[in-house]
Amino acid sequence: MVDHPPRPFQNDSARTTTAVIRRPIQYVEHLSYYPELERRVLELADTGLSAVKIADQLNRDGYRSARGDDPIRRRVVVQILHRSGRPLPAQPRPLPIDPAEAPQEHEWWLADLAARLGCTTGTIRKWLRDGHLTGRQETQHPHRWILHAPPGKITHLEEHLAKARGRNTRVHPRFAEELGDNAQAQSA
Fold first, then answer.
1. Which of 104, 109, 132, 171 has the most CB atoms at less than 10 Å from its CB?
2. Cα–Cα dist 45/55, whole Å
3. Cβ atoms within 10 A of the Cβ of 2, count?
4. ∠ CA(180), CA(185), CA(188), 5° rounding?
């Protein structure tokens, strides 16, 4: 929500009313107090709280969602941490791990690999579907994915993410002159 300063309004009966207008906004980053909210999230994360517990504490502290009608939820906390370069570590496994099916050398739980690379589990699942990663599933419930990713593959995936995030974006030669001397023209 964005609070606009008090303004006088005149209604049909010629009375003037002063009120604060609250306007919902779409993104949490557009909140006027976002830097304060981000600092508080990082402070709570440093204490070891989970995203759900951080969200609960933010709501108790009086913070509101961007739209103002809902409390802050886990997803907002995760987004703030991720954008700050501090994704939450993978949570402890809720079920025991069968030693015969535990990850071996150069194998990762899907969530742990996502945390290591600083990306979402959805990205890892897409790479798995597209054949960029190989893995196996546990034969017993909950059938978690165990992915094979030796150090060379980790490096390759980190480079792939860096390019996708725009750190090494290529510029088409036709647009290089418009962008100035800082842009390197590479053929697309």
1. 109
2. 11
3. 13
4. 135
What region, left, alpha or beta, does residue 48 occupy, with left being phi > 0 and alpha being psi -120 to 50 degrees? left
What would the two tokens of residue 106 be?
Answer: 């150069």
Tell me the pLDDT tens digit for each residue of 51-61.
889 999 999 99
**Vertex 60, ends 57 and 64: CA angle to 5°?**
95
Q: Where are the strands (E) in the chain, listed by range?
A: 2-10, 16-23, 107-109, 134-137, 145-148
Identify the CATH assignment for 95-188 out of 3.30.40, 1.10.1660, 3.40.50, 3.80.10. 1.10.1660
CB neighbours of residue 66 within 10 Å: 19
Query: Domain extents for the chain?
Result: 20-83, 95-188
What CA–CA distance (Å, rounded) separates 150 from 168?
A: 24
**Percent of the chain at pLDDT above 70?**
69
Q: Which helix (H) or strand (E) holds 42?
A: helix 34-46
pLDDT digit string, tens, across residues 29-72: 777 788 898 999 999 988 888 888 999 999 999 887 777 667 88
In contact, 121 and 110? CB cutoff 8 Å: yes
